[in-house]
Amino acid sequence: MIQQEKMKVVRQKQIADGIFELTLIGQLTLQMKQPGQFVHIRVSDSLEPLLRRPISICSIDSEHMEFKMLYRAGGRGTKILSQKQPGDEVDILGPLGNGFPVEETESGETALLVGGGIGVPPLYELSKQLNAKGVHTIHVLGFQSIHNVFYEKQFSELGETYIVTADGSYGSKGFVTDLLAQLNPTFDVFYSCGPLPMLKALEQTYPDKKGFLSFEERMGCGIGACYACVCQTTDIVAQDYLKICSDGPVFPRGVVAL
Amino acid sequence: MNRLQVELPGLTLKNPIIPASGCFGFGQEFAKLYDLSKLGAIMIKATTLETRRGNPTPRVAETAAGMLNAIGLQNPGLAHVMEYELPWLEQYDVPIIANVAGTETADYVAVAEKISTAPNVKALELNISCPNVKSGGIQFGTDANTASGLTAAVKEVSKVPVYVKLSPNVTNIVEIAKAVEAGGADGITMINTLIGMRLHPKTGKPIIANGTGGLSGPAVKPIAIRMIYDVRQQVKIPIIGMGGITNAEDVIDFLSVGASAVAVGTANFVDPFVCPNIIDELPQKLDELACEKITDLIGRSHR
Q1: DSSP letter at A233?
Q2: Residue-wise over B103-130: b if at least 16 C-beta within 10 A, else e?
Q3: For residue B57, is pLDDT > 80?
Q4: Residue B113: in which H helix or E strand, if any?
Q5: Secondary structure (3-state) at B287
Q6: Strand A210-214 relative to strand A189-193: parallel, antiparallel, unpaired?
Q7: How many CB pairs under 8 A join A and B?
Q8: Where are the alpha helices (DSSP H) in chain A?
Q9: Angle at B161 between CA B155 and CA B166, to 5 degrees
Q10: Considering only CA atoms, which of B99, B104, B105 is closest in space to residue B78?
Q11: Residues 6 or more apart in contact with residue B240 via CB below 8 angstroms
């Protein structure tokens, strides 16, 4: 169920160039079940900035009622968020959207998780849940350069993890698709979150595989009421447009026109 | 006695708080968060004769204390709204104000004639002020004769009172208000969004795919207040005011200049519980102003 809560900051840590890890505590955590869902954050009580910021859920710890999100402090809103200290309150609305279907991969099968940049965080909770049910996971994570790499260790603890950087300063050089061509991994289902060209390339590289892609777009309300974050669909679904916030952000491959 | 009750043509509002058209869909999303029966009324998303896909994305851009949008009247079309959205809303004890849009007079008339027969539609809101579509919308709302003619044509077929939603993108809004009153409008809703633009800092090009978008949010409130202040003195029909309302104090400002009820738009995106929160705050605000009932505040700026 969607709730609104002033959640308390437990920890705030810069983990890479411009990338922050924020841990929040509160009852709302208990509503979080599916990886790939997001929260909508009001970073200030004032009218500036006015709108909420959608940020994906990276890790859920129901036992301690804590969750983590990773975000890039790039714009006005996320810069304000990055200044929050332990004990500060943050207005959270969530959990929102439909995340990655963990049930689509059977125990004993292999899932390929492909992330690009700030699309990597939701794959972490996904990998945790897949591993918990006995799915073997392979992680292929792309970043701009060595300064932007994060969570390599965390993913490595869950399965084979490969890092690729666009400038070659860490791991292999190029895009995730270059690395995938080399690795030629054997898997049953793929899950991905990252830039559109990456999602498109994945769909083309694995035309016969079951896959799930997470999208992003400028959002207004985050709950499906404002019709701001629509995406165009392919012929396989009846609707012309789907809303990324409430119909997605995760869709099965082939649904969104890329 | 219900201190918050307001009576308007076709509408008995248990309180003057109405979510604004385009900011509340058809209510389904907010029904997951609170009981829609709490609201004074609901202005549903603009409905056109045929399905409309709306504009390409990006459709929104944040601005100082506001936002631009260019959704482009995306909606599932009249038949779907009649068959699914309105019947679904019947489970709630709340009057519906149906926002009607079109590209030519015949479209408006066709939608109005049909949608005004739905049992829970108690009034129409004629959208002659959408700034984000190529034809129709604002074209009807920026010329007094056209606005008056369209109002009269819709009045002829509508089974319920007709409110006309005015555009602030005009030189003299009082003239348009008088024209729709002369055309037979039962009420006015105002203001729609102001046409604006925001640029991408790197490219110098507009962020919104449509180029321009409609500006809403707290930034536009002083304009709305001024326009309602002016119109109230020149027309007799009631006004439902809107433009940047985020709290109970804002509501009181709108009532003071002469609105009989208000609509809350952009604030629903910031705080989805804003409407019920404002409704809960209002009695205390009345106490602070030593006011018995909310209608006592209407038009007090002019007394």
Answers
A1: B
A2: beeebbbbbbebbbebebbbbbbbbbbb
A3: yes
A4: helix B105-115
A5: helix
A6: parallel
A7: 96
A8: 76-82, 121-132, 152-156, 176-183, 196-205
A9: 75
A10: B99
A11: B8, B18, B163, B187, B188, B189, B190, B259, B260, B261, B262, B263
Q: How far is B121 from chain A (nearest CA, A)?
A: 20
CB B192 within 8 Å of CB B130: yes
Tell me what the pLDDT averaged over chain A comes to. 95
B130 among known catalytic residues: yes
Q: Is the ipTM of this complex over 0.85?
A: yes
**pLDDT at A240 > cutoff 80:** no
pLDDT in tens, A64-119: 999 999 999 988 999 999 999 999 999 999 999 999 999 999 999 999 999 999 99
Q: How far apart are CA B300 and CA B167, in angstroms?
A: 24
What 3-state class would DSSP assign to B300? Answer: helix
Q: Report yes or no: A28 at the B interface, CB cutoff 8 Å.
A: no
Distance CA B77, CA A153 (A): 51
Beta partners for residue A11, in sequence order: A23
| pLDDT of amino acid B135 | 64
Treating both helix axes as pointing N-terminal to C-terminal, what angle do A196-205 and A176-183 enclose, rounded to 10 degrees? 20
- Radius of gyration over every alpha carbon of chain A, rounded to an integer in angstroms: 18
Smallest CA–CA separation between B183 and chain A, in Å? Answer: 32
Please tell me the distance from the alpha carbon of residue B213 to that of residue B192, in angstroms, as a whole number: 12
pTM for the predicted model, two decimal places: 0.94
What pLDDT is recorded for position B149? 94
* Closest to A25 in 3D by CA, of A121, A92, A122: A92
Residue with tokens 């509340």: B24
Q: Are B200 and B207 in contact (CB under 8 A)?
A: yes
Tell me the nearest-neighbour CA distance from B218 into chain A, angstroms: 8
CB contact under 8 A, A227 and B25: yes
Determine the Cα–Cα distance for residues B109 and B104; give it in Å rounded to an integer: 9
Contact state of A50 with B60 under an 8 Å Cβ cutoff: no
CB atoms within 10 A of CB A207: 9
Q: What is the pLDDT of residues A17-64, one digit of tens each?
A: 999 999 999 999 999 999 999 999 999 999 999 999 999 999 999 999
Tokens of A195: 């830039």
Is A220 in contact with B69 (Cβ distance < 8 A)?
A: yes
